[in-house]
Amino acid sequence: MSNHADEPDAPDEPDEPTGPGGGADPAPDPDPDQNTDAHPHPSLLQRVGARIRAVGRRLRAHARHALVVGVVTAVLGPLAGYVVPKLLEDPPPPAPSCPGAGCDGKSPKDSGCAADVVTWEPAEGNVARIQLRYSKKCGAVWGRIVNGEPGDMVTVSVAGGSSHSASIDINHDKYTTMAWVGDTFRVRFCAVPGSTPGHTGAWVKYCFEATEHAEWD
Asked: Which residue(s) pair with 180 in the sheet?
């Protein structure tokens, strides 16, 4: 007789499932779309393979880009000697927006007429330093005062044409709007002292005349 209490019988093992042939069902084929790696993280070999595939995609993309650039270069090749220098040049100044009579009364700066401007400034008897400015491209003149003070005025009048004037608001200079001129012209421009309180200038109104033959600078 044993000194130990009887151990309970082990439970019966369940029957193995059988397949149609009476044996155990075969293991299902692995799904090719599933990761059969037992580990949740990709293996070193899988990571290296993924990087190689990514590099291959980038190389193919760069190859297509190089092909496109090569085709464009081949097409523009005969024009390269003309196109490349033009791209490197400074852009030309904007064309005047108002040639001829259309410039009358407009700003020379805003109209692009200052690009080819020439100036005549009389050297004698010109206390406030008034100037006559002329743009041949625009066919226009305008007056400018350089050494005035607030209240001083510059005027410009074209014989048989229009007249314009401007007075200094602040600082020492001001210019008029444009007056249209033809190929030949006679212009009178004047300096008029201001009468505002505190004006210090002791000079009186004076004028000059000029034609297209003035000593333009």
From this structure: 140
Whole-angstrom Cα distance, residue 216 to residue 176? 18
**pLDDT tens for residues 37-78?**
444 556 777 776 777 777 667 766 555 545 544 544 555 565
* Contact status, residue 145 vs residue 153, Cβ threshold 8 Å: yes
pTM above 0.70, yes or no: no
Residue with tokens 């001001």: 174
199: confidence class by pLDDT, cuts 50, 70, 90 = confident
Note the residue count of the chain.
Answer: 217
DSSP secondary structure code for residue 17 in this structure: P
Rounded Cα distance between 94 and 39, Å, is 71
Is the distance from CB of 169 to CB of 150 less than 8 angstroms? Answer: yes
